[in-house]
Design a protein that fits this description.
By secondary structure, the chain is an alpha/beta fold. The protein contains 8 helices and 8 strands.
Length: 230
Amino acid sequence: MKRLLEVCAGSLPSVEAAVEGGAERIELCSALPLDGLTPSVGLLKYVRERYPQLTIHVLIRPREGNFVYSQSELRTMLMDIEEAMPWADGFVSGTLTAEGDVDIPATDLLVRATHGKPFTFHRAFDHCRQPLVALEQLITLGCSRILTSGQAPKAVQGIRLLRQLRDLSDGRLLIMPGGGVNTENARQIMDLTGTTEIHGSCSAGAGVTSAAMVRQVRTVISSVSSLDAT
């Protein structure tokens, strides 16, 4: 089964480097030093027009900090999705309650707003107090994948939970490891979790994507021989 690297690109130079390195899909955002915020529509339109074959998933995150959003912030997120719809292939977002659970009504609104385009619940998942409960809730809500480090600082440290999530999801959605992914650990993460997608910024420093690193990670994951790729 084909393995895929999703590159987190927070600027036009990073997008250009990701494409040069052979990336097939990016998560387009801004402000990577803040862990990523919603990109401008202008950037999205430009990337779409310049790279028509590139799969673009757009991050919807209106501010830095936690993932507990007010009604006004949620409305802004819905408007951002509406504005991005003509040029985006998918969306990446996530909302939580103050107690650390998936905000089901808010997430339902976000998923419905994408009108069937793939929806990735992002690393807000790593702050869920009951990850296995959250997994089932996100499947019911119609999410396509979960981006997670396995609730560890880095994905390589969260392999046990990542594998458990992958097994329990049983093909109902994709588990996509992310967090500290690099050329040295990408193969180990995919081997031990059985996942088919992995997420990384492939940064050479200062948050700018390196084409060489994208190429190297893609080479590494293309040679993965998973312990259980079914």
